[in-house]
Automatic annotation (TrEMBL):
This is Glycosyltransferase. The lineage of its organism: Bacteria, Bacillati, Bacillota, Bacilli, Lactobacillales. PANTHER family: GLYCOSYLTRANSFERASE, TEICHURONIC ACID BIOSYNTHESIS GLYCOSYLTRANSFERASE TUAH-RELATED. One of its GO terms (molecular function) is glycosyltransferase activity. Pfam families: Glyco_transf_4 (PF13439), Glycos_transf_1 (PF00534). Keywords: Glycosyltransferase, Transferase. It comes from Aerococcus urinaeequi. Residues 18-183 form the Glycosyltransferase subfamily 4-like N-terminal domain. SUPFAM superfamilies: UDP-Glycosyltransferase/glycogen phosphorylase. Residues 201-349 form the Glycosyl transferase family domain. The keyword Metal-binding does not apply.
């Protein structure tokens, strides 16, 4: 089969795209990607590029269309332009694919139209349930979007969700086939030596991803500035925390690296003592969050800090692999002081994170993806 994998995101930076590509690379299927760049001055261009996965290059058709990252309702016009561009590209290139692997509603709504019109198969992959992941949407519009997304779920050949908890989020839909693919990094567990942290050096902490307020970035920066015993490394696309990130250049213990590909993110995390994925629990979608970073922490054997009532807290507490805090700067400051005074805890929590990986291993997730596509034939 010829498979078109689409997400409204940059290709090399997106873990979800790399994850699916890595699995399907081990099959006889032909795959390619359609992605989008928002941070651009170009508009309505589609540039043919390459994405490298496991040393092999795959074609990536990159739609150039600017938008404000984390811009919310301001991005409605750019979104409609993107969907129009995507529709016509798929229509004009329908001979290139038999199956569309569409990630999230903004892509899935277009993919369903194309699949029905041109007799293509559709695999719908929910990274973020749309009506819950957008704030400031009127209630009646949320209800409309939920019904529209349920329609995609009901009509797709298969639907992918990232955790058991997400079944509750899509209750009321009727997927033909439902597959759970945890957000495990597409790598075998790295053989790493877990060592005790010295009391004589600064502790290293890092975050790679969307630099937005709902991800706590605007609160992390001033807290770390006041904690000279910690060094913070940030990387990723700057969203509505732009003002806070712009101040980093004048803070001696914080470094911002800009946008980096996914494999570089793992290299950064390998060198840190602790990770964080502190998401705003007020955000409805975060109740069911299954951040890549929790699984990356398992892969690398790193303790992680998460927020209460964000889905991830259950795993972190159950595996004793990190710290769960309230979503405020005082709570972060207190836990960092505790960690600095109790560095021996990091060793035990690192071992626990590493040992938890087997429950969510990439080998298991990869096999699920491969079987899903074998059953589409």
């Amino acid at each position: 089969m010829k498979i078109c994998i689409i997400r409204n995101s940059e290709g090399p930076m997106n873990a979800q795209l790399i994850r699916i590509g890595t699995a399907l690379n081990k099959t006889d299927n032909e795959i390619f990607f359609v992605t989008r760049v928002r941070d651009t001055d170009d508009e309505n261009q589609v540039i043919k590029k390459k994405i490298n996965i496991d040393g092999k290059d795959f074609t990536n058709y990159e739609i150039q269309l600017p938008a404000v990252i984390g811009g919310g309702i301001k991005n409605i016009i750019p979104l409609l332009k993107y969907q129009r561009e995507l529709y016509y590209w798929l229509k004009n290139n329908q001979d290139k694919f038999d199956v569309i692997h569409a990630i999230d509603y903004d892509v899935g709504s277009i993919a369903l139209k194309i699949a029905q019109k041109f007799n293509k198969k559709l695999v719908y992959h929910i990274a973020d349930f749309y009506s819950d992941s957008r704030l400031n949407i009127p209630v009646h519009l949320k209800s409309y979007l939920r019904k529209k997304e349920f329609n995609i779920i009901n009509k797709a050949e298969a639907t992918i969700i990232c955790s058991e908890d997400r079944k509750e989020q899509i209750a009321g839909s009727h997927p033909k086939k439902l597959v759970i693919i945890h957000n495990t990094p597409p790598l075998k567990q790295i053989k790493t030596e877990i060592v005790k942290v010295s009391s004589s050096r600064n502790l290293e902490i890092a975050y790679v991803g969307g630099l937005e307020k709902k991800r706590f970035i605007d609160q992390v920066i001033p807290v770390i500035e006041r904690q000279p015993m910690f060094n913070l490394t940030l990387a990723g696309s700057v969203g509505d925390a732009r003002e806070s990130v712009s101040e980093v250049s004048s803070i001696s213990n914080i470094t911002y690296l800009g946008k980096i590909p996914y494999n570089k993110a793992l290299e950064i995390y390998k060198k840190v003592d602790i990770m964080f994925a502190i998401y705003d629990p007020f955000h409805p979608n975060h109740k069911y969050s299954a951040a890549n970073k929790v699984y990356e922490a398992m892969l690398l054997g790193k303790p992680i800090i998460v927020a209460k009532n964000t889905g991830m807290d259950k795993i972190v507490e159950a595996e004793n692999m990190g710290y769960v805090i309230d979503f405020n700067s005082d709570a972060l400051e207190q836990i960092l002081l505790h960690i600095n005074d109790n560095r021996k805890e990091l060793y035990e929590k690192s071992k626990n994170a590493f040992n938890a990986y087997s429950k969510y291993s990439w080998e298991v997730m990869e096999e699920r993806i491969i079987k899903l596509y074998q059953n589409l034939d």
